[in-house]
Design a protein that fits this description.
There is one protein chain. The chain has 383 residues and is α/β, with parallel strands linked by helices. It has 2 domains: 110 residues, Aspartate Aminotransferase, domain 1 (Alpha-Beta Complex), CATH 3.90.1150; 246 residues, Aspartate Aminotransferase, domain 2 (3-Layer(aba) Sandwich). Helices cover 37% and strands 13% of the residues. The chain is built from 13 helices and 12 strands. Strand 6, helix 8 and strand 7 form a beta-alpha-beta unit. Helix 2 runs antiparallel to helix 10, helix 3 packs across helix 10 and helix 4 runs parallel beside helix 5. The longest helix is centred in the C-terminal third of the chain and has 21 residues.
């Protein structure tokens, strides 16, 4: 089941970093990236420091690790570490943004029907404050036309908040065009890059977005409990989150309850004490991500994805994907009348995938090889 026949040598050079392939075929990176030996080693490093030094490690090693992670996240999306705020989840990052905006004159927030619902929940919860959430529908359950988003935006819009890559279809949105739509109307643009950063090259400066969030759970190979928020520099002094914590404060060790004096960089969008074990796991994962390189990760992943789509169609399946390769990413939805049953069938063969309504979701990444998804298709189509 773990054959590497016909696999590119480059893929094999990193596959041994991921022990899960010793016993399983892993095709579920869009739910959780595989654990690398580097991530495990960095977690062990953190545990050793905790054991040997306790809280004394905070003031030099652990503090430096937080800055190392801000800088490393910044490299992934083309921004300096000073423009990165650390968070334990995307929900937390969205809260920092959602609680920093003034909705008195611009009460509208535009989202899409294909976004992960965490995005909409942040602003639906503000309905009592007069916030209006406009959901732009998808005509094909795969993409959302830019012109439909533009029609939803007006002078009452505070924010467009949407995905770089849709978790529902793997379709890649034109984030730069979305930012331009927002800015033409005086609104801001927030892009959820959780399904993009890592598998798709990202340059937030070229995209001209105001906020960009992603994290370790999926394609950045950091596991749970660690995420980040990019904030355009001009906004770090213009906005002040109403949901905050002591890590947002410039003089946080003053312990003064009488005044709030936030950082003048993206750290003002941080909140409480970061979870250090996930920070270390993410640092290890990012070592592998950086070693492979953004362009090479995209190249390998898309070669696998296109082969998966071609072979699925040849086997009589009808993948739900964007119509052109340029719009696709490493998420392929295979229609199923009982996806949970099919995912269990695959699991019995030690093939790890995931179920979404009406579909089995398969997501190859740079550490996969063609035989991985070919085995999955064979299992799915076996009578």
């Amino acid at each position: 089941m773990t054959s590497t026949a016909r696999a590119p040598a480059a893929a094999l050079s990193h596959r041994d970093q991921f022990p899960i392939f010793r016993h399983s075929i892993y095709l579920n990176s869009c739910s959780l990236g595989a654990l690398s030996l580097r991530a495990r080693a960095r977690v062990n490093e953190y545990l050793d420091l905790w054991e040997m030094r306790g809280a004394a490690a905070w003031y030099d090693v652990w503090w430096a690790a937080l800055e190392e992670l801000r800088t490393a996240y910044g490299r992934v999306i083309g921004a300096p570490g000073s423009e990165i705020a650390l968070h334990p989840s995307i929900s937390s990052a969205l809260t920092a943004v959602g609680e920093s905006l003034d909705y008195s004159r611009r009460p509208k927030v535009v989202v899409t029907s294909l976004d992960f619902p965490t995005i909409a929940y942040q602003w639906l919860a503000k309905a009592r404050e007069g916030v209006e959430v406009v959901v732009v529908e998808s005509p094909d359950d795969t993409r959302v036309p830019l012109e439909a988003i533009e029609r939803a935006v007006d002078d009452r819009t505070a924010l467009i908040a949407t995905s770089h890559v849709f978790f529902t279809s793997g379709a890649l949105q034109d984030a730069a065009a979305i930012a331009a739509i927002a800015h033409r109307r005086g609104a801001l643009a927030l892009i959820d890059g959780y399904q993009a950063a890592g598998q798709v090259p990202v340059d937030v400066k070229a995209l001209d977005v105001d906020f960009y969030c992603a994290g370790g759970l999926k394609w950045l190979l950091g596991g749970t409990g660690v995420a980040f928020l990019y904030v355009r520099p001009e906004l770090t002094t213009a906005l002040m989150p109403r949901a905050t914590g002591w890590f947002s404060q410039e003089q946080q060790f003053r312990f003064d309850p009488r005044a709030i004096e936030p950082h003048d960089d993206a750290r003002r969008f941080e909140a409480g004490t970061p979870p250090l074990m996930p920070v270390y796991a993410q640092l290890g994962g990012l070592e592998v991500v950086a070693e492979v390189g953004a362009a090479e990760r995209r190249r390998r992943t898309m070669a696998l994805t296109e082969d998966l789509i071609e072979r699925a169609r040849a086997a009589g399946l009808r993948p739900k994907v964007a119509p052109t390769p340029e719009e696709r990413t490493g998420i392929v939805m295979l229609p199923s009348d009982d996806p949970h049953r099919d995912v269990r069938r695959l699991a019995e063969a030690r093939i790890v995938t995931d179920a979404r309504p009406g579909h089995v979701r398969i997501s190859p990444y740079f550490y996969n090889v063609p035989d991985d998804h070919r085995a999955a298709i064979e299992r799915l189509t076996r009578d």
